[in-house]
Design brief:
Keywords: Methyltransferase, Transferase. The chain folds into two domains: 77 residues, Alpha-Beta Plaits (2-Layer Sandwich), CATH 3.30.70.120; 208 residues, Vaccinia Virus protein VP39 (Rossmann fold), CATH 3.40.50. Helices cover 31% and strands 28% of the residues. Helix 5 packs parallel to helix 6. The longest helix has 19 residues. Bound molecules: S-adenosylmethionine. The site of S-adenosylmethionine has 25 residues, from helix 5 and helix 6.
């Protein structure tokens, strides 16, 4: 197993991380070294991205690259940074090797939904700020609709990765839930994680850059909620292509850097989805959009 670490200038760190998310979907280990921020990814020889591809992405921000064989404890180190998270006291998202909330909580852990995600080869353990922001907005929207006596209804998860958002939506009572991703490993992970959590989620391969407007498997069904934790270029593509069938009543867009929000909000406004809320965590931001 190789640990490949990129040390970058702190001022460029968030931008670099945004680029690395696509290159290393299962996660990046981050260490603040003072004068540089180190991002490390793990993989077998031949599986890691090539140096020229990293240089092309990271460019001038790169200060140093360190590649090292890791000792037998690599699996423990890898696991250590997939931390469980508690979202709004409602959802506990954890990897399978961490105990359920009911076992670690001091109070009433049974009121919290347990969501187990095996990151496998797909992005999305819940711990990343982009996923977390989506989960927060999803829980709040769920509560608002319930309080208003509205049906929850279908969900379309664009770029489902591990399926963490799709599984959470299904656990919260939305349905039917359908995930799409261009990676076969993500589709498999979405289905496996849904089964592991005992919820019904369908998933299919779909390339948002090539396959045109997206749709629920039943485009004649009711309006869906769309979850889209994607980077800016893909969100702009989704806004440009629009949707087949009933347009979403809400869309949660994440994977954005704070300064990218205005442009993405404007692109969705052109197809009738207006900004209802904006939320950030560090340099990452998410938008809740609703049909005008
Ligand atoms: C930031 S991850 C989000 C994963 C998960 N939904 C979450 O919130 O943690 C983005 C996902 O989009 C997928 N993706 C990237 N390019 C895509 C494309 N052209 N079409 C469909 N999915 C794509 C990636 O494979 C990845 O699973």
């Amino acid at each position: 197993m190789i640990r490949l670490a990129f040390r970058v200038r702190p001022a460029d760190a968030e931008i670099v991380l945004a680029e690395l998310v696509d290159l290393a979907p299962t996660g990046v280990e981050e260490t603040d070294r003072g004068d540089t921020i180190e991002y490390a990814i793990y993989g077998a020889e031949g599986e890691l991205p090539s140096l020229p591809s990293v240089r092309a992405l990271v460019g001038d921000a790169l200060v140093e690259v360190v590649s090292e064989e890791v000792a037998d404890d690599w699996a423990d180190r890898w696991r250590a940074f997939h931390e469980p998270i508690l979202v709004k006291d409602r959802l506990y998202v954890r990897p399978p090797w961490c105990p359920p909330y009911a076992e670690v909580a001091a109070g009433d852990g049974d009121a919290v939904t347990d969501l187990v995600v095996d990151p496998g080869q797909a992005f999305g353990t819940g711990a990343h700020a982009t996923t977390r922001l989506c989960l927060e907005l999803l829980v709040e929207l769920t509560d608002r609709r319930r309080d208003a006596g509205e049906d929850l209804g279908p969900v379309l998860d664009l770029g489902s990765g591990s399926g963490v958002l799709a599984v959470a939506a299904s656990q919260l009572g939305w349905g039917p839930v359908h995930g799409v991703d261009n990676e076969a490993a993500s589709v498999a992970a979405t289905l496996e994680n849904a089964a592991a959590n005992g919820v019904a989620v369908t998933a299919a391969r779909f390339d948002l850059l090539r396959d045109g407007a997206t749709a629920m498997p039943d485009p004649d069904g009711p309006e869906p909620l769309v979850l889209a934790n994607l980077l800016r270029p893909l969100l702009l593509r989704v806004a440009a292509d629009g949707f087949q069938g009933a347009p979403p009543h809400h869309l949660i867009a994440s994977g954005l850097l704070v300064h990218e929000c205005d442009g993405v909000a404007a692109a969705f406004a052109r197809i009738g989805l207006v900004e209802a809320e904006r939320r950030s965590h560090g340099d990452w931001a998410a938008l809740l959009l609703r049909r005008a």
